[in-house]
Specification:
The chain is an alpha/beta fold and 459 residues long. A 6-stranded parallel β-sheet has the order 10-9-8-11-12-13. It has a 3-stranded parallel β-sheet with strand order 3-4-5, sandwiched between helices. The longest helix has 32 residues, at 197-228. It has helices at residues 2-7, 20-27, 41-48, 59-65, 91-103, 120-133, 156-161, 173-183, 197-228, 232-240, 261-274, 278-305, 333-343, 357-364, 380-383, 395-399, 419-422, 441-446, and strands at residues 13-16, 53-56, 68-71, 107-112, 141-146, 166-169, 192-195, 314-318, 347-351, 388-392, 404-407, 431-434, 450-453. Helix content is 42%, strand content 13%. The structure holds uridine-5'-diphosphate-xylopyranose. Uridine-5'-diphosphate-xylopyranose is lined by residues 149-153, 208, 211, 215, 249-251, 253, 256-258, 260-261, 322-323.
Amino acid sequence: MAVIADQCPDVQVTVVDINQNRIDAWNDSDLSKLPVYEPGLDAVVQRSRGRNLFFSTGVDEAIAAADMVFISVNTPTKTKGLGAGQASDLRWVEACARQVAQSAQGHTIVVEKSTLPVRTAEAVKAILSAAEQSVDSSQRTFSVLSNPEFLAEGTAISDLESPDRVLIGGEDVVAIDALASVYAQWVPQDRILRTNLWSSELSKLTANAFLAQRISSINSVAALCEATGADVREVAKAIGTDSRIGPKFLQAGPGFGGSCFQKDILNLVYLCRHFGLPDVADYWEAVVKVNTWQQHRIARLVVQKLFGTVTGKRLAILGFAFKADTNDTREAPAIRISKDLLDEGAQLAIHDPQVDSQQIARDLKLPASTAPDAEAGPTRAALSGEGTWWPTDDIASAVQGADAVIILTEWSQYRSLDWSVLVSLMRQPAWVFDARSVVIPAEVEAAGLNLWRVGEGEP
Ligand code: UDX
C-alpha cells in the first residue's frame, strides 16, 4: 500500500489495523522502528507518510470513506478442526468482510489481497450481498476483485515498483478498470492481466507451488549429486541455460521457508482432495515432503560427520532468517535443523544479523541460555545431553570453541569470512557445513577445515 501511495500521489491510502502498537510503530518518526524490515521501505514511507499515506486504528471511518478496500490480513494454515494442518484459516478474512459490510458507504470495491483458497471470493461476496439486501443499507453496494500479491521479501519494493505482472480477477469490468487505472500510473498496460475471479485466486497458489517445486526438485538432485560425485551448481547451470527451464530458483539449499510456499501448497493439496483429485494432491504434497526431508537430512549428516554424536558439542549456526535481507523466520529451515540438533544434545551458538533472540526462542520453543565459557569445558547441561542455545552478536564469538559452523542463511557477510582466522578459534578437527553455497571452498580447505557443501559430491 505504501508503494501505491508513493506512485500515485493523487490517491489517498489509509492503512488500518486494530493493533495500536503496530500502528504507532508505522507512525514512528524513527523510520528504523517500522514493524517490517524491508530494504527501501523506509524511504517509501518517508516520501508519502502524512502526504497521502496514513496509518490509523480508525477502521470503521476509513472503510466508510473508501472507494476501495483491500483485505490484506493473515491467512495462516488452520491448526485445528476441519482441514487442520492444510486448509487456510479464513477467520480474519471473514471478520474483515463483515466489518466492511457494516461500515461501507455508497459503492465500495473490495479487493482480496491476502492469499486465499480458490472460491473464497464467494464467501466474501455472500457476506457483502447480505449487507446490500439489509433494510438499513439502501445505499450500500459492492464489487469483489482478487488482486494477489507476488512480491518476495527482501526485494519487495523493487518487485512492486516493476512487477512482472499485476493480476486482477473479477467480473465487474468497471471495478476492474478502476483498480487497473491505479496500477497503470506506473505499470505498463500489457503487464496488467485481467482474469476471472477463480483464475486469479488459483494463479497465486499455483505460482508459489511452481516456485517451491523447483526448489524441491533441485534439492532432490543435490542429494543425488552428493551420492554420485556430481556438483549441483554445475547441474543447475547446465539445465538453467536451457531457455525453456531458465536459471532462476535453481539454488540448492536447506529447503524453502517463508510465510507462503508451504502454506500455499498445503492449501492446494487440501483443495485437490476436496475436489476429488487425490493423485494431484499427492503430487503437490511431495514438494513439501522433500523440503522437510532435506532439512532433516542436513541435520542428520552434521551428526554423522561429527563422529555420530553432537551431544555436548558446540556448533555455530550462522543465519536464522528464512533467507537473507529479512528478519522473518517463518518456516525458516534453521528452525527444523536447529531443533534436530538440540534433540541430539548440541550446544548451539546462533548468529543472525537481523533476527532477535526472543524470536529464536519462540521458534525453538526453548529459552536462550547464557553463553558458556568456551575455555571452561563442557557445562553440566552439556554433559547431561540437554540441548541448549544462546544468541551471539558477532561471528567470532559464535565460532569460538565450536566443532562446526553451519551456514543456513545466505547473508552477504558470510561470503567473506576469514577462515584462516576463524579456524584458530575452533576445536579440531573442525567442519564447515555450507547449506547455502556461500563460502569459497579453496579458502575453507586451505585453512585446514573439513567442508561439506550442499549438492557437492566427491568426484
Ligand atoms: C515467495 C514468492 O517468491 C513470492 O512471489 C510470493 O509472493 C511470496 O512467496 P518469499 O517467501 O518472500 O516469496 O521468498 P523467496 O525469495 O521466494 O524464497 C522462498 C524460500 O525459497 C527461501 O527460503 C529461499 O531461501 C528459498 N529459495 C529460493 C531456495 O532455496 N532456492 C532458490 O533458488 C530460491
